[in-house]
Predict the structure.
Amino acid sequence: MEETEGRTEKKKKDKAPLASIKVISLAKKYLMYKDRSGTIYAFVNSRSIPIEGKQFKNTLINDFYKSEKYPAGKEAINAAISVLSAQTAESGIERRLELRVYRENDNIYYDLCNGRVVRISGEGWSIEAARPMFRSLPHQKEQVEPAHGGDVHKIFNYLNISENAKLLMLCYLIACFIPDIARPILHPIGSQGMGKTTMGKVIRALIDPSNADALITPKDEEDVKLNLYNNYYPVFDNLSGVDSRLSDILSQVVTGCGFERRELYTDNDVRTYRLQRTMCLTGINCVTKKPDLMERVLLMPLERIDERDRKEERLFWNNFNADKPFILGGIFDTLSRAISIYPTLRLDRKPRLADFATWGYAIAEALGYSGDDFLKAYILNKETREEELIHGDTLLQTIIMFMADRDTYTGYMKDYYKGLKDDAKPESDDKSFPKSENKLRAALERIRETLNGRGILFVIHNRDAIGYKISLWKKNNVDDVHPENVSTRRKANKDAKNVGSVLSVDNITKTSGEEERGGLSESMRDAEVEGFAKERTLSTLRTFSSTEASLHDVDNSVDTMGLSTLHAQASTLIIDIDNDNPDDEPLVEISSDIMRVNQV
């Protein structure tokens, strides 16, 4: 008996290497490649699947059984995959793989997850066979086939939003099909029964249908990153709040970031993943009060649903699924027109998430609306966000009240902190108010942008023998974008003279002239002139900075750069713009105005 079992075991061992060789031979019919993180994929049934995943292993098991009429052992399959993985890692093709949307030249591709893709260009859209562009994940659902001549406005049969929010919603929805741009996070808010979860599920069903249509926010940071990496448009439902670390992650993910992940059972094998996402967060109240994240949120207050208008769940989704091909077709029709319009546009002034703002303008025009109407709605949404921030931030409220009847203030930080605290009388558990004077500076930087939007500027001076001084003042001319002062222009129509007048020394010295400063000290005069000079220069940089990254650099430079560095940066930027646009009026002359500020 033992002798028979021994012979059987020996035959299995002898057979295992042959089985592995056969598995490798069968697998050669599949195209294999690596992505930028080093993960190895195979193109099976027009889908890119990781070769170390269960799906590819099952494919090899089935292929082997069909060929040999007996099952391959686990060891043979694993050995074959190890060889294929090593060979591809060493000499295989590297391909860029994305989720759901992909940009190639002037074309945008959308994955239907059924072996076909939608190709959208400025000439229209069509459905084609899939190529190795997209990662395939088990939770993804196939998308319905879109219908030509559809109507994107049918979406409002299924969203509970006011009339004046509809254009903003349409522009956001269609912009979610544009890859590689920073888009805001959709955040519907409202009391119970207003359709927040339903809105998230409807938007996800159009953009990124999944078996997991709404996610519970995981507590572990690694799980958060994994959820974001494996979902093109995640919906985190019914949040009561977002903690500081999650807020930081979501802020970074909107504008694009990388993260590293260690391979299982290894100490040294680390893969780097690039990640840029938009998403939907739902909650009864605004789930974040952190300015960095709030600046990247699109608040969508919902209206109360009349009891007579409520629909049964089954009927609601049956109707939506019937309309879905026409809504999706309308999205692609509009996106195609927007692709043609986009290259002709340049915004006079760019709010945060400038690429989204420019695409939103193009989408509004493609829908037959005015692009300026979109910009006004988007900027008014910023004001709504600021109101939410102020409502939940004791420090912000106190500073705004403090400056309500003042044009300027200068004093030592310790005295300023004590005065603010006496005015605010914050609760002991109030996280929005700094616990001590030495935490005030960081807290002020956190709310700088919101204060700037309210026309309040500040400068913290170098330390003297007593301590640090702070100067605050109000802007006489708010250069930020305002709903009543937005417009766009074609590339050949920039007006350099307006920027020049904003940056001129005469303008700056007049704004901070002796007659307006009253009895301020000499140091305060210098601080005010310096502050106005910086603000004017930064306004110019913001105007001509075309990416979110450059805007971020500009906004972080107000205290870290000297005036001369800022002015040199503005001059270089303006000269570059002039070289790129030879038909414009000369912009180089502005640089002399900028540099003259150094003499103030």
Summary: The longest helix spans residues 313-341. The mean pLDDT is 79. The CA atoms of residues 24 and 80 lie 5 Å apart.
